[in-house]
Design brief:
mainly alpha, 3 helices
């Protein structure tokens, strides 16, 4: 899961006073982008199943338990599982 910035649209009404919240990408967003990229990399029947399987595992996992396998088509570092110290 990457912490890339999410594009923000300007609203004609602006933001309420004191509202400093920033949008955050979904934890499986990079997996979804990998599936979309796979659609354009040759025969989709051969390129999509692998990335989609990892995307589906990510969506069904609990936060912090996402799959750590590397992305198939995106040139990003593989996700790392953060260890929570208690």
């Amino acid at each position: 899961m990457s912490e890339r910035a999410v594009p923000r649209r300007e609203s004609p009404w602006g933001l309420p006073e004191g509202d400093t919240r920033q949008p955050k990408a979904h934890r499986c967003n990079d997996r979804a982008e990998d599936v979309i990229q796979a659609c354009f990399e040759g025969n989709p029947f051969k390129t999509v199943p692998g990335p989609f399987k990892l995307f589906w595992q990510c969506m069904r996992s609990k936060p912090g338990e996402e799959p750590t396998e590397p992305y198939t088509y995106l040139q990003l570092d593989p996700p790392k599982r953060e260890v929570k110290l208690e």
